[in-house]
Amino acid sequence: MSDAIPPADKGPLYFDDLHVGQRFVGRKHQIDADQIKAFARQFDPQPFHLDEEGGRQSMFGGLVASGWHTGAISMRLMVEAVPIAGGLIGASGEMRWTKPVRPGDTLHVESEIVEIRPSRSRPDRGRVTVRTETRNQAGEIVQILSAQLVVPRRPA
Amino acid sequence: MSDAIPPADKGPLYFDDLHVGQRFVGRKHQIDADQIKAFARQFDPQPFHLDEEGGRQSMFGGLVASGWHTGAISMRLMVEAVPIAGGLIGASGEMRWTKPVRPGDTLHVESEIVEIRPSRSRPDRGRVTVRTETRNQAGEIVQILSAQLVVPRRPA
Q1: Which of A38, B85, B111, B115 fits as disulfide partner to B12, beta carbons 3.0 to 4.6 Å?
Q2: Domains in chain B with CATH codes
Q3: Average pLDDT over chain B, rounded to an integer
Q4: Taking CB atoms and an 8 Å cutoff, what residues of chain A touch B95?
Q5: B4 in contact with A at a CB cutoff of 8 Å?
């Protein structure tokens, strides 16, 4: 994954600029076997993430990416696509992995704001729930992430 | 993080071997600024994860690890500490980040089985919910992960 960070096409967006139904679509990222194995060696050293033979002998029938790898790639694509003021700062998240990610898959994220709540205790910020689908080149959803973000209000 | 994988002290454990309340404690891992920045450049390039100055200007007041980095390290420690047959295969997960992780913090995981359900459709497996607290050197919880795992029954 390249270290180059393309500029967000607009932003930064404050709490006041967001509304339910607002959508953001990220760029594409192709994952390959080397990326899958390198991530696995460092963070998820299980046979079906480490090499093809381990994958063939597993319930996946082949090499698959760690769910944490899919999550981390999705975060990268979200950081580039969702220009929230102050950054994407998550308080919590729910993930579902709906389909394996395999070498050669091309992933992208589609994020949508599904809930907005002002903070009762902190008038300078609010909570925003963003639902992000990570999809492959066939349009199939491989991961659904629902994240609660802390978002600042526009300074007076 | 070293690539060496210490052997699990027992296992593999099948669905039939697990019970609610069963606990697993992992080894310690110290995180440093280089690890935090390297992960951020690849997966979460936000100023408060990339360098000290970006951290000082943020709500965190200093460099902090990406939540996905804390999650990935926790996964590594869980893979080593929780010897489930067939591997740790998550269908879904809920995460809460309760405290920032900073350079020099030493993390470990404490996992507990909190729910066990046989599969209705697949008699050869079940669903097991594992709650994992990631704690720092002061014993403070920095992340809580509740993961639903697919676990095979012991072959007849």
Answers
A1: B85
A2: 15-152 (3.10.129.10)
A3: 92
A4: 92-95
A5: no
